[in-house]
Amino acid sequence: MKRRDFIQLSTITGVGLSLSATSFLSACGKRLNETHSSEYKILVFNLLKEWCDGMIKIQIINPSDPTVHGQFKCPTGWMHGRVIDAVYPFFCMAKITGEQKYLDAGIAVFEWGKNVTKPNGAWTNDVDPKSWEGTTVFAAIALADTLKFHGDLIDETRKERWYMRLEQAMDFVYNRFHVVGNSNINYSATTIYALHLIGNMLNNTKYLERSKDMANQIKSHFSEPNALLFGEIQNKNKKALSPKGLPGIDLGYNIEESLNNLVLYALEAKDEELLQILKKSLNSHLQFILPDGGIDNSFGNRMFKWTYWGSRTSDGMQPAFSFMAGDNPALGTATFNNTELLRQCTKDGLLYGGLHYMSHGVEASVHHTFAHAKPLATILDHWDHLPKIDKTAPLPRAVANGETYFKELDVSLFGKGDWRGTVSAYDSIYSTRKDVRQATGASLCTLYHMKVGLLCTTSLAIYKLLEAHNQQEQPGEDFALTPRIETFKDDTWYTNLFDLEATFTSKDESDSLEYEAKVQLKNEAFEAVTETASNFSLDYSATSEKLEILATTDEAIKTPTAFVLPIVSPTGEKVTQVSEHEVTIEKPEGTVKITSSSVIKIKDTPKGRLFNMVPGVEAVPLIMPFEDKNQVKITIKVI
């Protein structure tokens, strides 16, 4: 296509020639005023443009070396095989703005994909030809959307070649994911939509028939009673249950990947039965969206990739929540807030993997950016089919008053006054060969305050690179961020974070909400500590004024034992040890006051903060040892 024709086409079909929200409004003029949800549209457009510009800044342009030409020079030093997914957002931005640089970037990044192409039609996840091939399904959708919406931007020769490459990729997908459950459920869900989308584009009836068949199969993978999608577990039987009878569920992958593709399929295929299941499922998943747009995946089976705003290598929540906001406007609030959170975590055009990467000096992986750029392009290309999206409907978590219990997770959400929290005794194990322990043990895995934001969160008990190519190394000391009881015996760590048998009860009254838990201190092998106190009561009480934690035992404590309470706090917030029993942390919207019946020790750290890759936040670690009495009582207030 000639440069002149390209610019004329983009002027007709795009949403404006823009470098900012102001110029965007100016360029679109009357047309933007007539479109619905303009504030959300501006947010989505500007963030997508910022990310595309950021990726272009680090794109390697060296035509003489096809092994790197078109790749991204990731700040982490890693060469990502899945960069080809970026072709779609680049082409979307090229169509919108008429700027040649986006078209050139999209062509270059996709053509680099020859370096990860296999004879069977797959693209590998990494440059290692022996690496995982299943991610081909995501690249196939990205290529299909590029050709479907923006194929007119390339010449016929290239277009024909890309269509042939698409067919090769889908032949691999068709043969690899032939039944629901032969891989993690996110692959089954994505394959359903890929087969439908590309089956229609290629007029391939076998793809369409397989898509319909798999869509019927996946309907049995929604839990009772809340219709949470399950099957995120490394087990040949994706319906395998834990000792407590709980299925493998990960909110991050569900919200950011699986539900997107199932919603798109159900809407396009007019599968009303599946659509009704998805409406219920989305409303259940909505309960876990925090007031600032964060996704509470503290207990999720694959939370080793949790980033607070979502998950490292999945796509983003925007499509499913946006398309279905007409049925529940709070879904629109959720996607709006989450997109704003993504913008908050963006710097120099790259999406950072958590709230405090920047303040702690941790580099961003470009993988987050190109993966999460795709759903924004999807939103813009489907804008005329979206319902109204704004923030008028409150999120369930924002107005929560009382307890919401999820039986299929053994997880409880609570709200009382301005306090929002999560208690987890979920016992599912994602990988039996290398357990990555998410929140369990009746831990207070999330504590959020409507005035000052996130206060307590969850990390892995021990940070592990289960997917080494999709995670970043832990910088500095690996110190768990989950509030807990712990002891050390013979240099072995024992804590309730490893207690898969923990139980809790709750009592919700008008002015308070109370939890009573029974936990044991165990090691990573799930063995209880001996010759010292092992059995503890762990109680939480929330009123409008305060949150209290009470840890007690009737057994003799013979090894140093403590309650550890890391308080989420980025570098720069003032921390004051008011007395041996009181610490304050000054936040922009208020001061957090922590008092304890025991002495409060602030753990020494090189930067004044500890940082954990999951979910990418800094914290001030407070340690309260059990002293003469066999209890520690902690009170948290916001003043």
Mean pLDDT: 94
Enumerate the strands of the largest sheet in spatial order, edge to edge or round the barrel: 10-11-12-13-21-17-16-15
Number of separate helices:
16
Beta fraction: 15-25%
Global Rg: 25 Å
The count of β-strands is 21
Describe the overall structure:
The protein is of the alpha+beta class. Helices cover 33% and strands 18% of the residues. It is built from 16 helices and 21 strands. The strands form four sheets. The chain has an eight-stranded antiparallel beta sheet with strand order 10-11-12-13-21-17-16-15, with no helix packed on it. Strands 8, 9, 14, 18, 19 and 20 form a six-stranded antiparallel beta sheet that branches. α7 runs antiparallel to α8. The N and C termini lie far apart (62 Å). The N terminus is likely disordered.
Compact overview of the structure:
By secondary structure, this protein is α+β, with helices and mostly antiparallel strands.
Describe the protein's topology.
Layout: H1 3-13, H2 21-28, H3 30-34, H4 38-57, H5 87-97, H6 100-111, H7 136-150, H8 156-176, H9 185-202, H10 205-218, H11 251-269, H12 272-286, H13 318-323, H14 329-344, E1 346-347, E2 350-351, H15 357-360, H16 366-381, E3 402-406, E4 411-416, E5 419-424, E6 443-449, E7 453-456, E8 484-489, E9 492-495, E10 503-508, E11 513-520, E12 535-542, E13 547-552, E14 561-568, E15 575-579, E16 582-587, E17 590-596, E18 601-602, E19 610-612, E20 617-625, E21 631-638
Antiparallel strand pairs: 1-2, 3-4, 4-5, 5-6, 6-7, 8-9, 8-14, 10-11, 11-12, 12-13, 13-21, 14-20, 15-16, 16-17, 17-21, 18-20, 19-20
Helix pairs in contact: 1-5, 4-14, 4-16, 5-6, 5-7, 5-16, 7-8, 7-9, 8-9, 9-10, 9-11, 11-12
